[in-house]
Write a structure and sequence with these properties.
Layout lengths: L3 E3 L8 H10 L5 E6 L6 H16 L5 E8 L8 H17 L6 E7 L5 E6 L2 E8 L5 H4 L7 E5 L5 H16 L7 H46 L5
Parallel strand pairs: 2-3, 3-4
Antiparallel strand pairs: 1-7, 2-5, 5-6, 6-7
Helix pairs in contact: 1-2, 2-3, 3-6
């Protein structure tokens, strides 16, 4: 048995490292994640996104599905969870260069937390526990508790069978309203606009610097030839 219990009080292991290590192991054809919300700082999302992008690049047949809680209709406080998820998923989409093999599914009041890697219908690796996709959870800054099962574990077949049924059931609960999708599009558009402005400013500064350098070189050449301006 190679079951691993991940908790910050028990050692230095983090769920983020376990997840990244599994992606780098280059196994599976499908990554399925389910979380209440998907947030965290840009560095965390980019680190995960780059590992996911490398994993996807190894085979055209690979796919990613992320289930995220839709908390809009619960109360005003939970609206912030949706806004954080929208921002986080927008960053992930940009890191993945808007790869259409990423499927995002919003589920009303989803509170489950699992991370899994499959080869077709066979479960290869899974983490089930308390960790949302957030900096404090994945880096064990909270007191989380997650169980990681690998392909060597005899119980993985039974877990895979039941988890597959749960995933199918989740698809039947997905949010029909496209409000979150529209919000994500707005966030992405704003980010792209900001990046464009940054790039345009950088280009303008570069062009100005090059122009000054060229004028300086011309003036130096004139002086060398005894030409006064």
């Amino acid at each position: 048995m190679s079951i691993q219990l991940i908790n910050g009080l028990l050692g230095s292991a983090t769920l983020l490292k376990a997840l990244l290590d599994e992606l780098k192991a280059n196994k599976g054809t499908l990554v399925v994640i389910g979380v209440g919300y998907f947030a965290g700082d840009d560095n965390l999302i980019k680190e995960f996104g780059e590992a996911l992008r490398d994993w996807l690049a190894k085979s055209e047949s690979r796919r990613v599905c992320i289930f995220v809680g839709d908390w809009r209709d619960v109360d005003a406080a939970t609206v912030e969870k949706n806004e954080a998820s929208v921002r986080g998923l927008a960053v992930l989409q940009q890191v993945l260069e808007f790869d259409t093999r990423l499927q995002l599914v919003f589920i009303p009041e989803l509170h489950a937390k699992f991370y899994s890697v499959w080869t077709k219908q066979t479960l290869e690796w899974v983490s089930i526990g308390s960790s949302n996709f957030s900096k404090s959870a994945l880096r064990e800054q909270n007191i989380e508790l997650d169980l990681v099962f690998r392909s060597q574990d005899s119980c993985l077949v039974a877990i895979g069978r039941q988890l597959a049924g749960f995933i199918v059931a989740l698809h039947g609960q997905q949010t029909d309203d496209i409000g979150l999708e529209s919000a994500m599009t707005d966030v992405i558009d704003r980010n792209l606009e900001r990046e464009y402005k940054i790039q345009a400013t950088t280009l303008a500064r570069k062009t100005l610097a090059e122009r000054k350098e060229m004028l300086g070189a011309m003036a130096e050449s004139d002086r060398a030839q005894g030409i006064s301006s």
